[in-house]
Amino acid sequence: MRTISKDIQELSIKSLESTFNKLSNAYKSTSEKGSNTTLIKKRLDAVKIGLESLNETWNGTNFRYENDDLLRSIDVLQGIIPSIEKQLIKENGGSSQKTLNERRLTALKLAIESLEEHLI
Known about the structure:
mainly alpha; 82% helix
């Protein structure tokens, strides 16, 4: 993986951890309501695998997934990117929401890159 500054690494991991926590809460809430959780569960799993991939790449933690899991995660994470890009277009420059979405977008792209390298 290309060289990424420590600051970007830390911000990306924090961003994916935050995304994972939000998806976990959404999954729990949606489950309690008896609503369909399929999409949330797919995203939750993909973000978890992406986060673990980045942690392995940058921090040497253990990472063991089958290629099918990696490919599925890459596909799901790529599917999240267009909605974040649309939100960024609508947001005012310098807003905290824009900063959050910029970091999330960077983190997702780096997670995808890391997952792709695990396929090789």
